[in-house]
Amino acid sequence: MDSRRDFLQKLTLGIGATALTDLPATARELYSGPKADKQLRVAIMGLGSYGTRVAEAMKDCKMATLVGAVSGTPAKLEDWKKKYNIPAKNTYNYETVSKIKDNPDIDLVYITTPNSLHYKHVLQIAAAGKHVLCEKPVADNAKQTREMIAVCEKAGVKFYIGYRMHFEPHTRELIRMREAGELGKIMHVNNYMGFKSGDPNQWRLKKALAGGGAMMDVGIYALNGARYATGEEPIWVTAQETKTDPVKFKEVDETIMFQLGFPSGVVASCGTTYNFNNYERLYVIGEKGFVELSPAFSYGPIKGRTHNGPMNQPVITHQTLQMDGIADIILNNKPDPNVSGAEGLKDMIVVDALYESIRKGGAKIMLAGK
Ligand code: NDP
């Protein structure tokens, strides 16, 4: 399929006529036109490295506008007010954030705080009646995630996870090919994602703030990728952990290999690490063809090849696509491409089982009833 030609055909329909998430590919051209009339008004909570990346990416958005900020650091709020033209009345700290409920100018809060604070912050924002977009991993475990989903439902707010790959053109094309049967019956998946972690004092190495190590941070990409590469939910898992630096990784996992068994009989062989670089790939093999993405999960540019040759999808900043995609879903009531809180829960159930398998010396953990 000529995805560029297909994209250009869809482009002529205009931004409002086609769900961004339906597009097999979105191109830079989409972002050269005017902003849409309706805008999703977003506040970012936790102005760190990723929050800043999102803020920069949102400058190009057509349907989402950055209008607010929540931070524990007053100097950052001052900086963001100037840099992103945020009015003082739309700025909060973690103590005052519940007052956001009285602010009619903010629709959604994007939570980009450390992992183990997501639970508390999602509950706070839902209680304030605002839609929530929460970074991965959604929480420390499935129990917390279930509660977050229930609280958001009760509050009548939408709850999404920052699974940006679901808006990324190569990834969307992989899913389209699999759903269209172009790969045939899926036979095997091999996914991995990791990097060498730096500063030994960072929160990512502290269990109380990170919830876990490489698995929680980036292993989640390999796991989520195995689910969208197969279109199935795993029924059993096994996992093995190795630790070469027990001082640095005293509190969190360093390297984990894990296997996911699916109802069709497919086994996904996956890995994650905080101890070496150049470890990033999604490889799905079917009876009729294959897709290999490498890099597959980082900011990219994502590159891919299939049994038909190199992939030709456009390269667009993931966070721009994600924020316009979320805006399109909320403002135009479009279906979401598997980025709901319920999708986060499916991953957390597996993560819990992976850690259980490790605790039990690599035992096979059945997922039914979990
Ligand atoms: P940073 O440490 O750079 O930023 C986190 C921010 O959270 C801080 O700057 C701070 O902002 C706020 N914060 C509130 N309480 C604390 C606390 N106790 N300790 C430290 N910071 C605190 O982390 P990242 O931006 O890299 O990661 C944030 C989240 O985003 C994580 O959940 C991570 O998994 C996710 N992420 C997702 C990526 C993706 O590609 N989807 C990529 C990178 C990260 P302030 O001073 O404003 O309060």
TrEMBL record:
Keywords noted in UniProt: Oxidoreductase
Location of the GFO/IDH/MocA-like oxidoreductase domain: 172-291
Assigned EC number: 1.1.99.28
Ranges where the Gfo/Idh/MocA-like oxidoreductase N-terminal domain occurs: 40-163
A single GO molecular function term of this UniProt record: glucose-fructose oxidoreductase activity
The keyword tRNA-binding belongs to this UniProt entry's keyword annotation: no
Name used for this protein in its record: Glucose--fructose oxidoreductase
Gene source species: Dyadobacter linearis
